[in-house]
Amino acid sequence: MLQVHHEGKGLCGIYQKDIADTKHQQVQNLARQAGHPLLSMVEEV
């Protein structure tokens, strides 16, 4: 987790596009509900 603080981003996993999009939405929703200013994004590699 310190990688995010030091480098500004971190890799959470490599998934197929549809799975990545679903996980992205889940993370955003959970962070918002908990009041955390977490930003997640899906990036093609």
From TrEMBL:
UniProt xrefs under InterPro entries: ClpS_core, Ribosomal_bL12_C/ClpS-like
One GO BP annotation of this record: protein catabolic process
Gene3D superfamilies in the cross-refs: 3.30.1390.10
Domain (Adaptor protein ClpS core) ranges: 1-39
Domain of life assignment: Bacteria
Name of the featured protein: Adaptor protein ClpS core domain-containing protein
